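Extended Data, panel c. Modelled sequence:
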Amino acid sequence: MGASALVNLLLDDWETPEKIRTVSLLYACGGALAFPFGLFAARLVSLGRRWEVAFAAAFVCLLGATIGLTGGLFALQYRSYYAEWHAPAFTHTWALQFVFTMLIALYQFVVLGIRLYFPLGFVALFAASVWFARQQR
């Protein structure tokens, strides 16, 4: 996933090399953290099922885990940037600011960040799903 983001950002001639490295690292960490969770969920869903079900389970579970965990990491980084302007910790205002900052970050990730998974991330997802389905036979 990090390679997919890196290639997309380099082809778009995006910002500075430091920011490209940061975003690529974020996507790589999100993908690496999501892989075991996605496989675990796919095993639970496809236990004792046919090849097609195992492929679909792996595809959906890996996709959801990757987007969810990478989006979560993005939201935490986004929140840490805006934290200095937020109210003191654990107050009612702080809780509202925390929740809405995280929701806005997740929205921005979905709108702007999903495109960085194409085309390499999609190919990797397809290959991992085929690998998982073959292991289940």
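Residues 79 and 101 are 6 Å apart (CA to CA). This feature is highlighted in the accompanying rendering.
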